[in-house]
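User: Just a sanity check before I run the rest of the batch. Below are the structure tokens for the first item. I only need the designed sequence back.
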């Protein structure tokens, strides 16, 4: 089963920007992580030359940055003949990085900025039987970041995520 941060509907860049102040990163470390995420998404080769040119840093500075982020547990680095395979999954696996509210119903009311109707409460309850709370929370946050706070839209995000898991 895929982790919450591997699901199709989860936008890593949005999450990184949303959690930026909690990640304890320098601006240069943040730029490196965002660059690595971009290069991974575009299936581009990651090498010292690419990182050096994009970040305007020396090879030693890039090496230090990679080492710092690896020490924090944010990066996994594997050397390949073409360059590096760098995973930023550790960034999403860190303890206490996500700040879920204790009650998912409160989270929905907070995002919608109003009390929920009985039908909406029932729909969330139905989702809780079909999906884990983490998936529902991220579907809500995705809809909120896109400014589409609509239960049907959230439901489509959840359904699409479940269908993607079934295919794999």
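Assistant: Here's the designed sequence for the first item:
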């Amino acid at each position: 089963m895929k982790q919450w941060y591997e699901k199709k509907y989860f936008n890593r860049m949005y999450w990184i920007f949303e959690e930026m102040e909690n990640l304890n990163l320098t601006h240069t470390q943040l730029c490196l992580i965002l660059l690595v995420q971009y290069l991974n998404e575009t299936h581009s080769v990651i090498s010292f030359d690419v990182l050096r040119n994009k970040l305007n840093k020396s090879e030693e500075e890039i090496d230090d940055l990679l080492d710092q982020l690896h020490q924090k547990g944010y990066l996994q680095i594997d050397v390949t003949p073409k360059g590096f395979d760098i995973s930023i999954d550790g960034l999403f696996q860190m303890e206490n990085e996500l700040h879920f509210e204790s009650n998912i119903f409160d989270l929905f009311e907070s995002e919608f900025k109003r009390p929920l109707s009985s039908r909406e409460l029932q729909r969330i309850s139905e989702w809780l039987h079909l999906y884990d709370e983490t998936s529902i929370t991220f579907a809500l946050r995705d809809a909120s970041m896109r400014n589409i706070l609509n239960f049907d839209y959230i439901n489509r995000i959840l359904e699409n995520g479940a269908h993607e898991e079934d295919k794999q």
